[in-house]
Amino acid sequence: MAGVILxxxxxxxxxxxAVDRVSLEVDDGEFVALVGPSGCGxxxxxxxxxxxxxITAGEILLGDRAINDLDPKDRDLAMVFQNYALYPNKTVxxxxxxxxxxxxxxxxxxxAQVKRTANVLSIEHLLDRHPRQxxxxxxxxxxxxxxxxxxxxxxxxxxxxxxxxxKLRVQMRAELKRFHQELNATVIYVTHDQLEAVTMAxxxxxxxxxxxxxxxxxxxxxxxxxxxxVAGFIGSPAMNLLRGQVTTQDSQVAVAGDGGWLMPLxxxxxxxxxxxxxxxxxxxxxxxxxxxxxxxxxxxxxxxxYTVEPTGDLTYIHLKLGNHLLVASNHADFRAAPDAPIWxxxxxxxxxxxxxxxxxxxxxxxxPLRVSARREAAAV
Amino acid sequence: MAIAEAPAxxxxxxxxxxxxxxxxxxxITRHWADYLYVLPALLVMLIVIGYPLIYTVWLSFHAxxxxxxxxxxxxxxxxxxxxxxxxxxxxxxxxxxxxxxxTLFAFILGLGAALALHNPFRGRGVVRALxxxxxxxxAVAAAYVWRWILHSDYGLVTGMxxxxxxxxxxxxxxxxxxxxxxxxxxVNVWKEFPFxxxxxxxxxxxxxxxxxxxARIDGASTWNQFWHxxxxxxxxxxxxxxxxxxxxxxxxxxxxxLMTGGGPAxxxxxxxxxxxxxxxxxxxxxxxSAFSVxxxxxxxxxxxxxxxxxxxxxxxxxx
Amino acid sequence: MATSRRGINLLGLARWxxxxxxxxxxxxxMVWMFSTSIKTEFAAIQQPPVWIPAEPTFDQYTTLxxxxxxxxxxxxxxxxxxxxxxxxxxxxxxLIAVPAAYAFSRFSFPxxxxxxxxxxVRNMFPVVVFLIPLFILMKFFxxxxxxxxxxxxxxxxxxxxxxxxxxxxxxNxxxxxxxxARIDGATRFQAFxKIILPLSTPGxxxxxxxxxxxGWNEYVYARTFINSQNLMTMPVGLEKFFTEYAxxxxxxxxxxxxMSVPVVVLFLVLQRHFVRAxxxxxxxx
Lengths: 380, 319, 285
Hints:
The complex is a heterotrimer.
Chain A: E1 4-13, E2 16-26, E3 31-35, H1 42-50, E4 57-62, E5 65-66, E6 77-80, H2 92-102, H3 107-120, H4 136-148, E7 154-158, H5 166-183, E8 187-191, H6 194-200, E9 203-208, E10 211-216, H7 218-223, H8 228-233, E11 240-249, E12 252-257, E13 262-264, H9 267-274, E14 280-285, E15 290-293, E16 301-310, E17 315-321, E18 324-330, E19 341-346, E20 352-355, H10 367-379
Parallel strand pairs in A: 3-8, 3-9, 6-7, 7-8
Antiparallel strand pairs in A: 1-2, 1-4, 4-5, 9-10, 11-12, 11-14, 12-13, 14-20, 15-19, 16-17, 16-19, 17-18
Helix pairs in contact in A: 2-3, 2-4
Chain B: H1 24-30, H2 32-59, E1 62-63, E2 72-73, H3 77-84, H4 88-116, H5 124-136, H6 139-149, H7 156-163, H8 180-204, H9 209-217, H10 222-251, H11 254-259, H12 271-281, H13 285-313
Antiparallel strand pairs in B: 1-2
Chain C: H1 2-37, H2 41-44, H3 59-65, H4 70-106, H5 112-120, H6 127-140, H7 147-171, H8 176-183, H9 188-199, H10 201-217, H11 220-225, H12 234-244, H13 249-283
């Protein structure tokens, strides 16, 4: 196994920039998820690493060798495709054996290796079947097996779970994670499903419009999204984002928004809000960080209940604040009538403020320093 | 192991430098191996099509007296002779009659067959296969069997009609100036409708069942389902099928040639048979070439629509 | 409700009547061909016509298929020539069409689209337009009166549709298969050869049938390029037969029947592939 390094990797099609100077390092044995909406360039990036598309500019390293100009067959990577790409006219055994045959592996070794792989994935009983005779989950395993059968430097996975039904997906997610941990494999995993990324990956690279937006651990991405795109993309239900004007009255900083709501800010967020270049901010808060009350509360904002969704372990409350529709959550027994007045306050420790124009996270002056210090400490 | 520096962000960035476009020469060199795949096909097409095409155009400006075998440049004389010739309009009308009539009826019959065979029933596969036979049978064999069937004295048609008492004299079809064209068209339709059937059957299979079901739930009658769901969906296939059929008919030679040879008294003379006569009976290759060029220009106009129809239907693929 | 039900039944009845008519229309000429071929010359011209002859005879078939008499020798010669020309055309056609179709489907070399359409446009050219210059060309190369002239010409008839059908076939094979193969260690050519080619067998079969039938049935070029009787193919042989034995309808019908049987059987056995290829290639875009 080896790590993968991307340096300023760029892919253009005519005037269209599909991947825009993406740089990231995947450590040996690390599981990295490339996540973003469709068309964000994540699959193109993966294909660039695999060598299926020619790179326009930049450099890709596997371990310490540059692989930009190598043919896919010489890169020593394995890939699992969304539609599995099993060879329809070959049996499961032959599918698994194909990478070995291409490498002219001796017959006895080949047999042993295929058997071992089939054993690991519990598909020994399927070896004589053809792909069309398999269920979706079984095909998925065979696809994985074909990647596992030789020992590649790294695994590339292109939405490998998205063709499975929901229940199987959860199960395979766990298996994939487990397999990664056992093999200590380097995995680059493309998905549009942020939940998959958050649950499986050591680090997540969020992409949008061909540009890498943020590359960090799931925790950090969830708790400290660097811009409104990441904030809105990671987490479900999505983070509530409200545009408002920063106001100061009697040295009390607040955010005022459409429909007449006014949110007073505590010191630290207040300072951050004031650093906005335009006096406009986008306030972001996750559903779990909205306090609510059906009785009037001093200094809280008044909204109206739109609808209530009990889910069993939580109740989601959709509510209108001014012109905004927010989603908040409360304990399972919480109930409220539609259109009832409701008073809410955002948890100021978990309030994200973004510059309304650049859409970048506003941070305390001292904050970035502290963060980079921590990161450097981790790096040592 | 170093961890990546502070993450790159979308914010304000200089637009990426788009590399200068590769020159065509460079692209061609980079893809040189790709051309090896298409080279044999292109070579064959070039020699057997490209060359003759240019040759025909060149030849069409020459008089080629059969006795001497030499070429004499005579400008547009051949074209003028053809367009002012006594038979040109006659042959043109025949050709239009033949092409439009054959295309129209083959299409109607083929469409009917495809629709009638759309819903499954026992033995559908066998019926479908049997209906394909005329398409596969050689035009030569077809021409002779139909000549035999339509034989005015001993033919099946005359015999049957006589024994049913419908007629009491031999039924003259292929030797009758007024009946020869409809008769030939009927035989041609016999030979061609299976092609339409195959194309439209294939097309019908792609009409989404859900859409038809939705139309049924919305209260559409069978006719409305057909007209508002099926036909729009088949538009591309219908277009390509009729165009191909049109071209095939405009070019078809064997059936007419072997059944009537253009007769009686040129009543079934088509452009194609006329060209063949000029070239290989009177050995006026220059004149025949000029005739071919005229036909070719008409084809080119049709070909333009044909390619347009095909491109409108073809998928685009990156790679 | 009741009316609509009756409407459906009427429609159903019309459908059966229409199918019966179609079946009669397509099948009767073939049946009559066979029926005549097993009659004596005298019985064939008897009125009113009889579908099943009282004294069927296979004399015509034994004459045509026996090398012992001159007619049979000739006929078997035509048959042999047709088999050879059609087979050679088919094999060459497939060998040329497969790589071209694959390249047109998968690669993105400059000029791909114009080249593809220039191949397709061949369908638009009248056969006779090429007859004259090709005849002169073949004469120039000394190919007149050879089978090679026919094989070369038939290739160009078959190629456009073959390439088109096969391209449609390849378009429908997910490109991930080659990508997977290439990552698994195959070169581009190996990916094509080991993975894609076996998958396109139905398309190959369809293309092959098409090319074979084209070669088998072609008449105009065969008539123009070939002068020697011992090189003639079936369609021209049939014409020759007709002019020589004009009144021997049973003989002509027997010859027509023998000529039709191989392609009809071949086609009926394999038509599923053909129709599928047409669906995949021509329709399902």
